[in-house]
Each structure stands twice: as C-alpha cells, then as structure tokens.
Amino acid sequence: MRNKINTISLTRERKGIFLMATKITGSAIRKARKEKGLSQKQLADGICTQATISLIENRNVCPNINILNQICQRLAINMTDVSFNPRYGEKLFSYIESDMRRHCYLQARERMGRVSFDKLESKLAEGKYYCYQGFAELYIDDDIEEAIYHFNWMLTKYPYENLSFYQAWSNLGLGLAYQKLGKTARAPKFIEESIRILEKIQSHKNRYTNDDICAVTDLYIDIIATYVELEKFDRALKLCAVVLKRLTSTNSIYKIDVVEELASRCLYANGQIVEATMRQFTAMFIADLRGNHQLFEKIMTKNQKHLIELVKKELSKNDGHETLIV
C-alpha cells in the first residue's frame, strides 16, 4: 500500500516539475543532509519520495515549493540559501531598471537589497548588477570612487554583446562620475563612447524593439542633459536632432516633449531666443498630449508665464469682435 502511495505521489510530483520549477542548489541540500547524518530515505520520510530527494540533489530541481520548505525545516537551513527562481529575479531586475531609468535611485537600492549576487545565474545578470550598483553608489551613497570601480568592473569583466546597452550606460556613469569629481575634460570621453555604443545598437534594426527604443531614448536624454550641464550646447543640440529623427521615423512621441525642452535650453544659451521659445511651446503641447503634467506646468506657469499672459491679454481685447485673418 505504501509503495502504491509513493508511486502516485511521485507521479504527481513529476507532473508538477515543469509547472513549479524552482532552481535548487542540490549540492547544498546534500551537504546539509550528510551533516545531519540522514540518508535520502530518512530525509524524505513523511515529506516526499526518496526519488524526489535524488532529483533535488542531482538535478537541482524541486517540483513543489512546499516540499522544499519542509526539507529545509528538517535540515534546519533557510530555503533562500538553497533555492533561486530565475523568473522572479528577472522580474525584480526589470523593476530595478525601471526605477534607475526614472532616477528613483532610493527605490532601486531598496529592491537591490533583495538580490543575492552569489545566486545570480548568468553573466547578463551580473553585468546588469554592477551597472545598477554603480549608479546607486554615485547618487545615493555619493561614493564616487566606488561608483567608478563598479562601472569599470562591469566594462572590463562583461564585454558581451547582449550587455551592449549596459556598457553604454556604464560609460555614461563614468562620465557622470568624473563630472562630479570636477574632471570635466575627462567626462566627454566616456559619454562619447556611450553614444558610439548606442549608435551600434540602433544599427541592428532587425533586433531593435519598442522597449529598446524607450531605453535608448532615456539614455540619450541623460546624455543630452549632461552635455547641457557641461555647457556643450552645440553637441547637445545635434543629439536632440538625432533622437527626434529616430522617434518620428518610428511614429513614436515617447519623451519628445523632454527632448524639445532640452533643445530649447541649448537654443536659449546660444542666444536663439525666438526658436528656443517656439521649441518650448512645442514641448508644452506634446507634454500635455503625453500627460506629462509636470513639464506642462513648468513651461505654462514658470518658463513662459509672461508670454502666455501677454497672449491672453491680446486675445481678450478681441473678445466679441471679429478677427481679420490675412
């Protein structure tokens, strides 16, 4: 009877392997079992089958999270010490990256606290982690030397094609770090390398997705904003033109308002007041269309408040009168 129950149990567990596949460090469980002086059969007793223990230890797979929990309790070890769900890790990384791209560094750092570097299972994940860590050091801890270390480590140890975007991001990070150090002559070298990598990424049109367009645009915006701070207005304007051309060629209005506003700042700095003002209004209208209320209000109530009030005043003079349009 017991053998029959075990057979049924094993069958059910095998069916669940692909439904709830959690990656296990089987060798850690084997080590803990032997330290307790337990055989596979003794460890399995009342929890699962001996075959399941063998599966966990030899193939690093557990069919059921409850089984794993009970095994860990019997061995007096933490489940997080022997298990890793890669899909959860990827999801968590996507949240961290979203926070980073929105400059929500404190929130990103809090999420990063849930990541165990030792359990990252790919070079891609490790490379991303060092890139994220660099920005956390730069903007939260204000530890520029540590930030430079993490960016350099990412660039030297993870020179893989599938990490190209993060290489571009890390080069920008180095540029920002040297800018914060006051080494403004050194910063553009790394920023230009970031641009070179982004151009290479965009040259592979067959592999260039909508998500890539948004990520690359966000990075370009950070680059342009940095050049504005460095007062390299002509270079920033050229990059604005590049980004706007690529966005409009894909029928996308993603952050066009932000790019137009940055372009207006460059034009104001260059003394091109009329064109700069027109670009500000373009930014304002697109910001309203995109629901970017913060930028819309900034231009409407601060940047162009005086001009808007003048226009309203002139329009009020024509209230109730026909307006001649030539």
TrEMBL record:
Protein name: Helix-turn-helix domain-containing protein
Family matches, as PROSITE patterns: HTH_CROC1 (PS50943)
HTH cro/C1-type domain segment(s): 29-82
Source species of the chain: Lentilactobacillus hilgardii (Lactobacillus hilgardii)
One Pfam family, short name: HTH_3
InterPro entries assigned to the protein according to its UniProt record, in alphabetical order: Cro/C1-type_HTH, HTH-type_regulator_Rgg, Lambda_DNA-bd_dom_sf, TPR-like_helical_dom_sf
GO MF entries: DNA binding
Annotated Gene3D superfamilies: Tetratricopeptide repeat domain (1.25.40.10)
